[in-house]
Amino acid sequence: MKTLYMPPSIKHFEPLHMVFSTWVDHLPFGYDLVTALRPKMLVELGTHKGLSYFTFCQAMKENDIDGVCYAVDTFEGDAHTDKYDESVFNAVNNHNRQHYHGFSYLMRMFFEDALKHFDDDSIELLHIDGFHTYEAVSADFANWYPKVKPGGIILFHDVMARLQDFGAWKFWDETRGQHETFTFNHGFGLGVLRKPGGDRSNDHPLLKLLFEDAKADDGAGLRSFYVHASKHLENTRKLKRLTQGQPQQQPAS
């Protein structure tokens, strides 16, 4: 029987934090995934200006989810983003303190240094979005996979981005055949991987759509929905800017 699902992002999601980022294409799904998982612990590797991370935090807060969130980043930039000044960290830190004080924490350090602060099998949602070479993504996955709880979710951004020396796409192509995965192709791509194990008897409808129903139509319906959800959110923001007399902006890659 086809799973019925009404995404909360369609009903009441309006981003509180908007910055230039290609993650803009996946905001509705990010919000819905956190709402579905209700994670006790969420970790993001590579936060930059915070678009994806604060979408996760907003979902936690607006849906009364009793969990904690950690953003791991040096907030100094790299060869793909270029170096950036202290204003980036200050803006992220200020927004975090203003809206998510009490359950969201910024860990200003290298990913490897943060590992010791997390127990194995403790993270229910991990987002890998750091340096995008094949070697870096592979190392992040190998290092952090043991920290993810059985049945937990790992997100990979930019799995469709074939530019410069980006290698997330290559890693994802190799990995998806060995794990339970779902791929969003729009934007720069988003990979969703589920770690084996865990109690799935009470899976949320979104998880069933990702990992069970998608087998019937190869996930085309779910992909199409979130393409339209992203466009709907973009058009809603444009309309709001026009009615308020603000200039339109496009996200940077």
UniProtKB/TrEMBL annotation:
<dbReference type="GO" id="GO:0071770">
    <property type="term" value="P:DIM/DIP cell wall layer assembly"/>
</dbReference>
<dbReference type="Pfam" id="PF13578">
    <property type="entry name" value="Methyltransf_24"/>
</dbReference>
<dbReference type="GO" id="GO:0008168">
    <property type="term" value="F:methyltransferase activity"/>
</dbReference>
<dbReference type="InterPro" id="IPR029063">
    <property type="entry name" value="SAM-dependent_MTases_sf"/>
</dbReference>
<dbReference type="GO" id="GO:0032259">
    <property type="term" value="P:methylation"/>
</dbReference>
<dbReference type="GO" id="GO:0005886">
    <property type="term" value="C:plasma membrane"/>
</dbReference>
<keyword id="KW-0489">Methyltransferase</keyword>
<protein>
    <submittedName>
        <fullName>Class I SAM-dependent methyltransferase</fullName>
    </submittedName>
</protein>
<keyword id="KW-0808">Transferase</keyword>
